[in-house]
Amino acid sequence: MIKSDSILIVDDEPDVFDILEGILFKEGYQLHYASNGYEVFKFLESSLPDLILLDVMMPDSDGMDICRKIKQIPEWNSIPIIMITALNSKETLAQCLEAGAQDFIGKPVSTLEVRARVRSMLRLKKQHDELEKSRQKLEQLLLLREDMANAVIHDLRNPVVVIGLACELLTLTNLTEKQSQKVNQIAFSAQQLNHQLNSLLLMAKLESAQEVLNPKPVNLSVLLQEVVNEFEAQTLKKAINLTAKIPEAKRLVMVDPDLMKRVLENLLNNAIKFSPTNGYVSIEVEYPVETNTVKVHVRDSGSGVKDELKQSIFEKYEIGQRFEGIAQTGLGLAFCKMVIDAHQGSLSITDNQPQGAIFTLELNAELQFVVAS
To answer: Average pLDDT for residues 338-356, to the nearest whole number?
Structure first.
């Protein structure tokens, strides 16, 4: 059985209700009546109509005020309101819309106008309700997908760890040089996969606000030097000229050291990966005098990032087209951006000259501690 639309008519004069009832009765609507604000809110607490016809001027109640209060309550906000007013000045009509009403009808009411505006508003309400149902359904599907993805990631971690352990055991046996190379290749791939799985899990926690930061006073210069040392072998293998400008720290930063180290590793690895063989990468820590901040600049000599990608490149799974032949996962930069955002900092990208990109990480002043001299 199809439910008929429900309309609440609010007017202090019973005669007006009788007129509107006569106009709308044959339309098959469920009509309800309230004579003041108290009766309106009492009705709404137990039943939500599909439409409210609300008189602007009533002796004991201000229709504008009733409309504002209804629109301030989330559960009632979506109920469309048509104001009925004898004041047809542009100022009054503007006030109706500012109060939250969707439409208005002038007095004396016209049968054709009332029916047309009521039908139009109920049609819009149905469309709104259908869209809201679709949104809620999509939201549930997205949550289900995230839950399934997280479950899969958790299940994948164990076999990846087993692969790594198996590779360690194989290195203890008598392997030929070629076999040893393959085992090392498998071990490195397993390590990379484990790193990506950990990043996915951490990103999911950051998105759902489940990840709790463990901030500590950190010397960013020392931390960055540790990261640079870790990449020496990788830069030698690719013949990358890596320069590091890391002055003595003038400030400590209040950050989660483990997460911040992973951010620096991702940014440096990204720069090395996208720079050509015999290219250069530079990394610099800056302690601006004019601001109580700390900045890290990572420059590469790759093909750069197109202007249209400079915003979307920080989104999950956005890999762009930066350098052909380079394996890209679309997670590293998104991970960095989420961690920096969680620390109330900023991560941006600009063009390097004559070619390449510059990623700049900046931590806000409220997260800093001045080092005692």
So the answer is: 88
